[in-house]
Design a protein that fits this description.
Elements (H helix, E strand, L loop, with lengths): L1 H7 L5 E12 L4 E10 L2 E6 L4 E6 L4 E4 L1 E6 L8 H8 L4 E6 L2 H7 L1 H12 L10 E6 L17 H7 L7 E5 L2 H5 L3 H12 L3 E4 L6 H9 L4 E2 L5 H9 L3 E5 L7 H7 L8 E4 L5 H6 L2 H10 L4 H8 L1 H6 L16 E4 L7 E6 L2 E5 L2 E2 L28 E3 L2 E7 L6 E7 L2 E3 L2 H6 L2 E7 L8 E7 L7 E4 L8 E5 L2 H14 L2 E6 L1 E6 L11 H17 L10 H4 L9 E4 L2 E4 L4 E2 L3 E2 L1
Parallel strand pairs: 1-4, 1-5, 6-7, 7-8, 8-9, 9-10, 11-12, 12-13, 19-23
Antiparallel strand pairs: 1-2, 2-3, 5-14, 14-15, 15-16, 16-17, 18-21, 19-20, 19-31, 22-23, 22-25, 24-25, 24-26, 26-27, 28-29, 29-30
Helix pairs in contact: 3-4, 5-7, 9-10, 12-13
């Protein structure tokens, strides 16, 4: 402390001075010109005349607090943690609140520990360029109706959440169990609160008594906001509202319509899910651009990406450019483009002009490899027979994640390609891949459009079994084999075959980010050429067709599940 004071009083030389900056003050919304003095990784002063061991000329750029992502699943990028950091940090992000929900559903707690360890090995002058505040997933599995690779009970959660490795409890998606006061679910929440840790939320369209009860349980945040009015009600009940700007979903316009001078400190900016292709264009800097373009005042937006998050999650001395705060700083051109020119963490330059200043040594423990363990699959595994009734088929909302139920006449006997084409259907299968029971759930999808083969993916929210879709049972079997041999991935079989491995838990690739972007684009284009219609991202739409927390009809490894009835239903009805 004496050294920090001596540096602030200009009696000692600082470690770093960032000169000629326009310093944005998140407390006042004002900007002042000056230098930023840094010692021991902390800001000690703002002004002029500091001596320093080294200096960096900001050349008139605006100095903002480095960005914090309030809620993200790193696995959704399909990148290794090291490659995710290499894309996110140059865009101004130096901290994330990470819920490793996907990998823990496959690998258990070891999956979360892998992400933490992989990022911790990155270094610039003994400083981690990205700090990961790791949450313990609350819903493993997400529902009791599917087969996942791991299970975390209330008792196990209570034990794990007390460990230093976990910062808080991840999004509580099982809101029906919270509202029903399920003992095991409440034990998870109570365990987190007893350990002094935060609990993130997932409360789509909860209102009235249900919202009161959800907040009364101690849940702090929500990113599943469906309208401006929904945002306002959740703010009024004491929740922080997370403004989501992800690859699949966002609520920027709703937040812009709901924010005002009284409530802007309760909004937090987050990604939730961000794929590698989108990350190359930007992370929270891109979200800030979009938010301001949507009419959100810049001073509110900056707070939502910095100070608001730090205060919500009790991140001490983070989120501002001011004395005593950590010297986590992003230099940007202006408060509209938010183009990031340089990024500092703890006063160390970790990225400049879009390029990380750290190496990315790959860490790949056995615990996250070889996770696809399906039973033997043959074309007969995908046989569907009718008995003269009606088939239930899923029709996916274009550009969305919800489905509706459509009925089609069921012939007598085995259905073939002629029937599928006549009814505008594809076969779909969810194949248990954790080596537990060999389940295969079979169903039909209307309107997807794929013809002449099959595609498949090992990313399938939230238990991440294999999802295979096609109009040819032989091709579907081949896709399943390719995915197993690759240790997971994305596969396409038609006029030739292609597979892109996701060799880390069947969710992420150990390849460089540039290769992940290129190969995922290539294989998606191959699937599109097989007829997949606009409105459906060929592979990632599949990944959500087994997500049994979004209406209406979804396919699990145990069969068709109707979210409105909250029960399994047969493929054929009378």
């Amino acid at each position: 402390m004496k050294h920090l004071i001596d540096c602030a009083m200009k009696r000692c030389a600082c470690d770093l001075v960032i000169t000629n900056a326009r310093i944005y003050n998140v407390f006042t919304g004002e900007t002042e010109e000056g230098d930023i003095a840094v010692a021991e990784g902390r800001i000690v002063g703002i002004g002029k005349g500091y001596a320093a061991l080294r200096s960096y000329d900001a050349a008139g750029k605006i100095a903002l607090p480095a960005f914090i992502d309030a809620h993200i699943h790193i696995e959704s990028s399909m990148l290794s943690p090291e490659e995710f950091a290499a894309l996110a940090v140059p865009h101004g992000t130096t901290a994330v609140i990470a819920d490793p929900h996907e990998i823990v559903n496959v690998c258990g707690v070891q999956g979360a520990e892998y992400i933490k360890e992989a990022v911790s090995r990155l270094r610039v002058e003994d400083v981690e360029p990205l700090q990961v505040f790791l949450e313990l997933p609350s819903c493993v599995p997400a529902t009791p109706f599917e087969t996942s690779g791991a299970t975390l009970s209330g008792k196990e959660t209570e034990k794990e959440i007390a460990r230093d490795v976990f910062f808080g409890l991840g999004e509580m998606m099982n809101f029906p169990a919270v509202l029903g006061a399920d003992a095991d679910v409440l034990r998870k929440i109570e365990g987190a609160l007893a350990a002094g840790k935060t609990v993130d939320g997932h409360a789509p369209a909860l209102s009235g008594d249900a919202l009161n009860a959800y907040r009364a349980a101690g849940i702090l945040t929500d990113h599943e906001n469906v309208s401006a009015e929904d945002c306002r009600e959740k703010l009024a009940r004491g929740l922080y509202v997370q403004i989501r700007c992800g690859s699949s979903a966002n609520n920027l316009s709703d937040a812009a319509a709901a924010v005002n001078d009284c409530n802007f400190r309760r909004f937090l900016l987050c990604s939730d899910d961000k794929n590698a292709r989108d990350l190359t264009a930007g992370h929270l800097d891109d979200a800030l651009r979009r938010l301001v373009a949507a009419g959100y005042p810049a001073k509110y937006a900056v707070a939502a990406a910095t100070l608001n998050i730090a205060e919500c999650y009790r991140l001490a001395d983070m989120g501002a450019v001011a004395p005593r705060y950590f010297a986590d700083i992003a230099l940007v051109d202006d408060l509209s483009s938010f183009r990031v020119r340089a990024v500092f963490r703890r006063g160390v330059l970790v990225a400049e002009e879009g390029t990380p200043r750290f190496e990315r040594p790959r860490y790949l423990p056995d615990a996250v490899r070889g996770t696809v363990k399906t039973a033997d699959i043959t074309p007969d595994s995908f046989t569907v027979r009718g008995h003269g009734g009606k088939f239930r088929a899923m029709r996916v909302t274009p550009y969305g994640l919800t489905t509706e139920e459509k009925l089609h006449p069921a012939p007598q006997g085995e259905i073939g390609r002629d029937y599928l084409h006549r009814e505008d259907l594809d076969l779909i299968a969810v194949i248990e891949r954790h080596g537990k029971n060999g389940n295969i759930g079979l169903g039909l999808v209307e309107g997807y459009g794929l013809r002449g083969g099959a595609i498949g993916i090992s990313v399938a929210h939230d238990s991440h079994n294999l999802v295979v879709l096609g109009d040819d049972r032989k091709a579907m079997a081949r896709v399943a084999v390719l995915l197993k041999e690759a240790g997971g991935g994305m596969a396409c079989v038609g006029d030739g075959e292609d597979v892109f491995p996701l060799d880390i838990a069947g969710l992420m690739s150990s390849a460089p980010a540039e290769e992940v972007v290129r190969r995922t684009r290539e294989i998606a284009l191959r699937a599109r050429a097989m007829g997949v219609r606009e409105g459906y991202e060929p592979f990632m739409t599949l990944a959500f067709l087994s997500l049994a927390v979004i209406p209406k009809l979804k396919l699990l490894d145990r069969g068709l599940f109707d979210l409105e009835k909250y029960s399994f239903v047969p493929l054929e009805t009378v």
